[in-house]
Amino acid sequence: MNPERLILSEVLEGLKLTREQLIEIGILIGTDFNPGVGGVGPKTGLRIVQRGEFTAKIREKLPDFDPVPVMDLFLHPDVTDDYTLAWSHPDIPGIKKMLCSDYDFSEERVGKAMENFCVKAGQKTLEGWC
User: Fold this and answer.
1) Where are the beta strands (DSSP E) in 42-116?
2) 54 near 24, Cβ under 8 Å?
3) How much is the CA Rg of the chain, to the nearest whole Å?
C-alpha cells in the first residue's frame, strides 16, 4: 500500500473548483447522507458542476430532494472540543466480538490478526524503526 497525501486546497485549485462545488459533486454521485443521481459518477458529476448545471440536474432527476441540508452538513459539521485522548492496549475481546459477531468475520483470521496487536509497550527510538 502506498498512502498518498491529498491537500484539499491544491486539489480544488487543480480542478478549478470551490469547496461548495466539490460538495455538489459529492451530492450528485452520492454520499452517506443521500443516494445521489443514478448514472452520475465522478467524471460526469465534475462536468455537470463545471457547467453550472447542478441545480437543474437535481431538480430534473431528484425533484423531491433538497440538497441544502446535505451541503450544510459538510460546510458546518457538528464538532466538539470536549474530549480526552487516552492510549491503552486494544480491547481484543471487544474487537473480536464486534468483527465476528456483528460483522461475520472469520474468528480464525481475526484471531491471527489480533496476535500482531499484542506488542511490547514502550516508546521506540528512531533507530528501532530502521
Assistant:
1) none
2) yes
3) 22
Instruction: For each of the domains in the chain, give its residue range(s) and CATH number, in order of start.
Output: 8-75 (1.10.150.20), 88-118 (no CATH)
**pLDDT-derived band of residue 72, with 50, 70 and 90 as boundaries?**
very high
What is the C-alpha separation between 28 and 44, in angstroms, rounded?
9
Q: For 115-130, write each residue's pLDDT tens digit.
A: 876 655 555 555 555 4
pLDDT at 125: 59
Angle between helix 54-61 and helix 42-50 axes, rounded to 10 deg: 120
pLDDT band, residue 33 (cuts 50/70/90): confident
* Rounded-to-integer distance, Cα 29 and Cα 108, Å: 37
Residue of 95, 119, 118, 117 lying closest to 107 (CA atoms): 95
User: Grid cell 431538480 — which residue?
Assistant: 59
Identify the residue whose cell numbers are 443521481: 37
Core vs surface per residue 48-71: b (16+ CB within 10 A) or e? bbeeeebeebbeeebeebebeebe
pLDDT at 123: 57
